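Quick note —
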Amino acid sequence: MRQSLRFPWSNLDVDDRSAPVIAVRVDVKGTTAEVPDHQHRKAQLVFALGGGVTCRVPSGLWMVPPHCAVWVPGGMRHSNRATANARLFFVYIESEMIDLPDRCCTLSISPLLREVIVELSDQVADDEARGELLATLLRRELPRMPVQQLHLPLSPEPRLKRIAAALAEDPSDRRTLAEWARRVALSESSLARLVIKETGLSFGRWRQQLHLIVAIRELTSGASVQQVSAELGYESVAAFITMFKKALGKPPAKYLASVAQDRSTSATSSRTSSPAARA
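Predicted structure written out below.
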């Protein structure tokens, strides 16, 4: 059973708050939880310190594994679904005060920025100078964070929405492109062209990206590689690990460990480039 994902207090309206940066900690107890579809003027950073979050926007699904965050521009409709026992931080920022794109992206959060976010969420109202210092540091550091490719493009095209909904409901569905084409009354070649036109990916690559998002969500919530492999319909654990490694460069355990560890190399390279701003 899924519960509503709630703020520590019920009367928070971030757009009514004058502070340029607001950080709120939200702990998910027990089962999965969700913030339904909504929007606000301020941009939002959804940061997972533990567990994971899947953020849905009109153009796609964005995965937030531990020690990563998804950037949601101001005014964009979105929903957030958190895994059981997730430790989350929602950071709200006035869009004009930070150099980040007007589209979503998943960012790998450095240890320094992680601590800034935690401190901001604990900031007491009577220490305004310290709060301003932390907010300034966050606005300077956030655009320098490396981008993680954990995104499933979605399309408003009705036939693709139908396929995407079915695959999201049952990720183990192994129907071929030809079988899906018959189901939505298209030829196989027409459906193949439509998927590429609407998502920029082949059908096989699009479905694989969904599998990666589901896999990371389940692994970060405590499922084993064997359980995830079976849930996604792979014939063997080895086949699943091979797919994961080819797509993300590392097997599941090493990939999740690398996301969580101190990426000093990435932090150094970000001093000369701004991957988030280019995403």
